[in-house]
């Protein structure tokens, strides 16, 4: 049993898919005559697809039947998948493969902890699936971030105590979920937005192996 485990969020930490979510939601928003901006998209980070649509309908002041709601969820995902289909390794965020390789060489267990139901397909597209000992995603959880469920399942599957897990997250809801699970939270992105994190880095290029060694120790 390893003493520490590393858990990575996917969207915004491993790959920059927020832009594709944005384009797909914007297309739906246009149909609803709502001007969906990048600022609105911030509210969607780390949030489940269902909750995103609820927020969008609220913003657009649109009421939907269950059937319409489900149809819009499907439509948005079809548009999103069209972008994913074209993804390749060039869309991996800087230094992510280096960090994963470093952990693999040290035999540190690695999990994915993502809200996305498309997580496995995306990891396959960018050829990173083999680094992960376990994938916990939107298909495995009942409660969405900021609930800690996704990270607690990941820790259990890695066989690592929750307080020995380190979580990388780009979303406020994700940092809150990691903190609620009593894990070490590392914010990737804007330190002001992710001020609740234990540590902050703009991206993995800022981190360096000395910091990783410190975490492992
Ligand atoms: C999260 C994203 O990782 O996954 C959210 O940050 C997204 O923006 C959520 O809504 C669900 O993704 P999907 O792929 O299941 O629609
Ligand atoms: Mg994210």
Overview of this protein structure:
The radius of gyration is 17 Å and the shape is globular. The protein has 217 residues and is α/β, with parallel strands linked by helices. Helix 1 crosses helix 4 (66-85). The two termini are 15 Å apart. It is 44% helix and 11% strand. Strands 3-2-1-4-5-6 form a 6-stranded parallel beta sheet. Strand 2 (110-113), helix 6 (119-125) and strand 3 form a beta-alpha-beta unit. Bound molecules: 6-O-phosphono-beta-D-glucopyranose and magnesium ion.
User: How much helicity do the residues have?
Assistant: 40-55%
Ranges where pLDDT stays below 50 over 5 or more residues in a row are none
Could you say which overall geometry the principal axes of the C-alpha atoms support?
globular
CA(first)-CA(last) distance: 15 Å
Number of beta strands? 6
**Total helical segments:** 9
User: What share of the residues does DSSP label as strand, in percent?
Assistant: 5-15%
User: How would a textbook summarize the main sheet?
Assistant: 6 strands, parallel
What structural category arises from helix and sheet content?
alpha/beta
Element-level helix/strand string: EHHHHHEHEHEHEEH
Major β-sheet strand ordering:
3-2-1-4-5-6
List the ions, cofactors and other small molecules found in this model: 6-O-phosphono-beta-D-glucopyranose, magnesium ion
Q: In a nutshell, what does this entry contain?
A:
The chain is of the alpha/beta class. It is built from 9 helices and 6 strands, in the order βαααααβαβαβαββα.
């Amino acid at each position: 049993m390893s003493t520490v485990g590393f858990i990575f969020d996917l969207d915004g930490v491993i790959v920059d898919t927020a832009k594709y979510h944005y384009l797909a939601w914007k297309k739906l928003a246009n149909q609803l005559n709502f001007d969906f901006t990048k600022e609105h998209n911030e509210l969607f980070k780390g949030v489940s697809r269902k909750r995103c649509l609820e927020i969008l309908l609220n913003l657009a002041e649109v009421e939907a039947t269950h059937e319409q709601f489900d149809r819009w969820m499907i439509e948005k995902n079809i548009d999103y998948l069209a972008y994913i289909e074209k993804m390749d390794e060039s869309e991996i965020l800087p230094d992510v493969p280096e960090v994963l390789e470093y952990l693999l060489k040290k035999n540190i267990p690695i999990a994915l902890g993502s809200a996305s139901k498309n997580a496995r397909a995306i990891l396959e597209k960018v050829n990173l699936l083999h680094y992960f000992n376990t994938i916990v995603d939107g298909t495995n959880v009942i409660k969405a971030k900021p609930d800690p469920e996704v990270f607690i399942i990941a820790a259990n599957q890695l066989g690592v105590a929750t307080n020995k897990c380190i979580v990388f997250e780009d979303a406020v809801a994700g940092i809150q979920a990691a903190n609620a699970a009593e894990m070490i939270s590392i914010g990737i992105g804007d330190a002001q937005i992710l001020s609740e994190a234990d540590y902050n880095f703009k991206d993995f290029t800022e981190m360096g192996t000395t910091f990783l060694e410190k975490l492992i120790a």
